Amino acid sequence: MNTAETIAEQVFGPPDAQPDRVFIGAPHHDAHRPADLTPHPDKAISQRATILAALADGTSRIRGLADCHDTRNNLRALTRLGVAVRPEGPATVTITGRDVAAFAERDVDLDAGNSATSSRLLLALLAGGRGRYTVTGNASLRGRPMGEVIRPLRQLGAHLTELEAADRLPVRIDGVRLHGGEVAVQAHSAQPVSALLYAAVSAAGPVIIRRRTAARDHTERLLRWTGVQVEESETRLRVLPARPRAFDLAIPGDPSAAAFLAALHLAAAPGRELALHEVCLNPRRTGFFAAVAAMGAKVDLEPRGADGPEPVGTVRVSRTGRLNSTVISGPQLIQSAIDELPLLAALAATADGPVVIADAAELRGKDTDRIATTIDLLTAFGVRARANADGLKVTPTPPQGPPVLELPADHRVVFAAFVLALLAGGGTELRGVAAAATSNPAALGELARFARIEAR
Ligand SMILES: O=C(O)C1=C[C@@H](OP(=O)(O)O)[C@@H](O)[C@H](O)C1
Ligand SMILES: C=C(OP(=O)(O)O)C(=O)O
């Protein structure tokens, strides 16, 4: 029997035992570093596809799901809602959808763990259900803003009650059929828009969502691909409620995980090329590659076709000289590199002049205040960095690692720490690296392809 407690283990096996403390030693010689890699599967698409399948008309199959804490929690949540999730080989599931009105009608408490994406999508999906649900998360997630999802959902008729503080989890949902209408999202973020799209499919009439920035559009693509009409312009989406068709989807490689590998490569190997295969090339996710190209790296994106609604292909990266000074700004570029900004700040340490990241105030509302934690990280490596109101400025300084460094509980900052440790030539014990498993438990093994590492 698939209970919520065991479903993730049935799909992925037990979580790999991850060391939390690791000593980063000397980088490997050029010839011993990889020339080809395939990054971990995409977390954002894994989460969206499993939630979409839970709603779809029929049984969907999703292959190659991202095995990480966030998707494990997502599968648990769906199982608790009475959705039939069945393991079908490694990281592959079938999910039999049901009308949202037929989701568990008894009280169900859902814990999204660390994932704002899961919590926001589930809030919106269940707002249009018929049961009574509570959505919560870990301490970090309970501190993150939910108002951009709660406010427009209320405008569509949702009955939501914040149980502790305004605009924060935990939130109780008393499901009701949502009416159609027009709502606006003020943040540049993709998540409220995606969340509202899940609410729209079961609403009583068309839903129009006004937005500020065309950020990642995985949900829009998945909905259209499964037969739901979504009209889109730069600032507006219009959805006609309809039940999505069941689907068969292979999850493409995560551009964020590809960016991590590319950052390790750029930190380590002048001249040589690294090819990253089967990467999602959605242009709203590839801002890291645009930014390092603007800094003088050689980057080629080679599409090979599509996995379902997403373009997929190979990314080739190399560099011949130092990276250039640059300004990384503008809502569109920032959104398409939002999770890679700490990696870019780490690479900036060896640029030939200052690197400024602007228009990125939303970094303050991530797993940690990523402007503050990225600056603390750079400072710990002796790199000059200071915060601006909406970003940061890095003044290149050769990184020098401290003997021991305690990292914040934030996977994106852990990945940036790996890059800095490599740039520093090793010699640092990093503590708190297990947080990598939020999105990519393979990251430590990937780092070991570039430098000697020892669990402590
Ligand atoms: O929609 C998503 O799947 C995500 C959107 C981004 O958040 P914002 O939309 O809040 O910028 C990103 O930081 C997060 O990792 C995943
Ligand atoms: C912030 C992230 O995800 P979420 O917002 O889903 O917690 C992330 O993966 O960096």
UniProtKB/TrEMBL annotation:
Recorded family membership: Belongs to the EPSP synthase family.
Subunit-level organization: Monomer.
Catalytic activity: 3-phosphoshikimate + phosphoenolpyruvate = 5-O-(1-carboxyvinyl)-3-phosphoshikimate + phosphate
This protein's UniProt keywords: Amino-acid biosynthesis, Aromatic amino acid biosynthesis, Cytoplasm, Transferase
Class in the EC hierarchy, top level: transferase
Active-site residues, Swiss-Prot/TrEMBL: D339
Name of protein: 3-phosphoshikimate 1-carboxyvinyltransferase
UniProt keyword Cytoplasm, yes or no: yes
Chain positions recorded as phosphoenolpyruvate binding sites: K43, R144, Q191, R370, R412
One GO cellular component, as annotated: cytoplasm
Metabolic or biological pathway, per its Swiss-Prot or TrEMBL entry: Metabolic intermediate biosynthesis; chorismate biosynthesis; chorismate from D-erythrose 4-phosphate and phosphoenolpyruvate: step 6/7
GO biological process, one term: aromatic amino acid family biosynthetic process
Binding positions for 3-phosphoshikimate per the UniProt entry: K43, R48, S189, Q191, D339, K366
EC number: 2.5.1.19
Example of a GO MF term: 3-phosphoshikimate 1-carboxyvinyltransferase activity
InterPro entries given in the database record: Enolpyruvate_Tfrase_dom, Enolpyruvate_Tfrase_sf, EPSP_synthase, EPSP_synthase_CS, RNA3'P_cycl/enolpyr_Trfase_a/b
Keyword Cell division: no
Its job: Catalyzes the transfer of the enolpyruvyl moiety of phosphoenolpyruvate (PEP) to the 5-hydroxyl of shikimate-3-phosphate (S3P) to produce enolpyruvyl shikimate-3-phosphate and inorganic phosphate.
Chief place where the protein resides: cytoplasm
Pfam families (alphabetical): EPSP_synthase
Localisation per UniProt entry: Cytoplasm
Gene label: aroA
Chain ranges of the Enolpyruvate transferase domain: 36-441
